[in-house]
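--- STAGE predict ---
source: upstream dedup step, 1 unique chain passed
mode: sequence only
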Amino acid sequence: MQVNLLAADPCPPQFAEIEPLRLSLKGLREKFEAILAAEGFSVSDLSLATLCFAPDPGKDDYCSICHATLKSKDQEPVEYIVNYLEQTLDAQPCGQSDLAHKAAQGRLP
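--- STAGE serialize ---
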């Protein structure tokens, strides 16, 4: 699931009927705006702010990987990927497993 934190309603349309998710994502966007403001920025300073949640391969449905991407209007994007254990992972496209990502980069043993 990809979430656009720059959208007024960050909930993806296919999940709009799930009220707890829709309200949680709205609250997450508000918290994101508050963090930006505390650091002297606003959403208007960004050209991209996305979160992508994907299942962690081989784990249950509650274990996910979060891929965050932020890009200011005049700089390169910054990416950060963390799993459900707060472990930082290599950058990989949203929804692509680490194994598939390594294979695509030719890094498999």
